[in-house]
Hints:
Layout: E1 9-13, H1 18-29, E2 33-38, H2 41-53, E3 61-64, H3 72-84, E4 89-92, H4 106-134, E5 137-142, H5 154-173, E6 178-185, H6 191-196, H7 200-210, H8 219-230, E7 241-244
Parallel strand pairs: 1-2, 1-4, 2-3, 4-5, 5-6, 6-7
Helix pairs in contact: 1-8, 3-4, 4-5
Amino acid sequence: MDLQLEGKTALVTGGGTGIGFGIAEILAEEGARVILLGRREQVLVDAADRIASAGAKHRPEIIVHDLTAPNAGKEIAAKALDLVGPVDIIVNNAGTSEVLGVGGAEDRWQHAYALRVVAPRHLAEALLPEMRARKFGRIINIGGTFEVQSIINSASVMNAARTVYSKSLSHEVARDGVTVNTVGPGVILSEQIDKIFPTKEAREDYCNRNIPVGYFGEPRDLAALVAFLASPIARYITGEVIAVDGGSHRFAF
């Protein structure tokens, strides 16, 4: 199926590694012009080289910026517009998972809030005028579990906040051809997962207990859905939260 992404421009936050790289890779394969955003320049350069060497029509551009810095969303939007002009697709992938519990450090709460809520909102609102004017835009959040946990995790709280904001935003911009959706990953292979499950036995035990399909996902398993949601073909899907978790169903809404 042709996803009709040729000529579209996508900004992927946290695009240098893991899920973000998988998303950027598929979008580039489908003909989109991709901007990789992250804090580590060499990681982004290496990612852009890998995508270009794989035969992508456009070598990805890179923007080095910390999403938790003051006014990050607005500044990143301005840089993107200078680099490539209007942005059609925003993929809010950057995020960290941090168990804080009662009495968790305030600076860590503020960091999580800036990363998962403030910056994505500012980024969207800075790029939305062009999207609405052209009657096409896609905003896709990469979320995670929203369920109540035994110990407070800042990521779950901020994912919930961003999802509620996104649901309301989807109503506000729907008639302008802009869709807003959230994709909730289950356990997707990455450097972080390698640290959590260092042995084959640990992985098998977790999969047997928690994942009906019986194995961990790969970045491209999730990226395929993101590419579809980013396409004109997915015009009638908005305000949704879709899990890509091998049947684990760990999402409350």
